[in-house]
Amino acid sequence: MTDLTAQVTAALERSVLPSVIARGAAVRVAAAGDGIVTLEVTGSPGAVFPLASRIETLIRAAVPGITAVRLVTPGAGPAGSPPDTGGDLAEAARSVLNAEVNPAIAAHRGHVTVADVIAGRIRIRLEGGCQGCSLAEVTIRQGIEPLLRARLPAMTGLIDVTDHEAGTDPFFSPEKR
């Protein structure tokens, strides 16, 4: 292990891993050199990618000389890769959501749609009572994501792209917790 890899690993263990693990994922240093660190995300990549800028800020502050941090999933390109068509995967995800998820969350005035698919990562948007709901992350990580993983082996991650702050009538508002 190079000195740079050891420094980044120590920074991850100190400030990033506890929150990443709590969200159902894991991160390890896949490569480090020339000021660029590549982190491999396993488990629930959709739980990590929204934190990418925060992770980069923490690592760059902790390890001088780091100029960029890239997140990748095993066997996939870096996060932010150009969109692939993902048409079949997107349609399959829509089908599972419409048949199995949306009927269940309709009782909470909720609905989930597929925003797009990029490199096997399905990006979803929560609507209605789910937008801004204080339990949305639990619904995604403990309900929707395991179901989609079981039904769609081509899926490499699930990312919530919902603007939860814009929710006007969440089923469980933060005050109800």
What report would you give on this structure?
This protein is of the alpha/beta class. The protein has 2 domains: 70 residues, GMP Synthetase, Chain A, domain 3 (2-Layer Sandwich); 90 residues, GMP Synthetase, Chain A, domain 3. The protein is 40% helix and 24% strand. It contains 5 helices and 6 strands. The strands form 2 sheets. The chain has a 3-stranded mixed sheet with strand order 1-2-3. A 3-stranded mixed sheet has the order 4-5-6. Strand 5, helix 5 and strand 6 form a beta-alpha-beta unit. Helix 1 packs antiparallel against helix 3 and helix 4 packs across helix 5. The longest helix is centred in the N-terminal third of the chain and has 20 residues. The chain is elongated and about 55 Å long.
Order of strands across the main sheet:
1-2-3
At the fold tier of CATH, the topology name of the largest domain is GMP Synthetase, Chain A, domain 3
Distance between the termini: 45 Å
Our count of helices gives 5
Which structural class should the secondary elements be placed in? alpha/beta
Poorly predicted sequence stretches spanning 5 or more consecutive residues? 77-85
- Count of strand segments: 6
Sheet having the most strands: 3 strands, mixed
Mean pLDDT: 82
The CATH class label of the largest domain is Alpha Beta
Taken from the alpha-carbon principal axes, the silhouette is elongated
Based on the coordinates given, report the CATH architecture of the largest domain: 2-Layer Sandwich
Order of helices and strands: HEEHHEHEEHE
CATH superfamily placement of the largest domain: Fe-S cluster assembly (FSCA)
Total domains, how many? 2
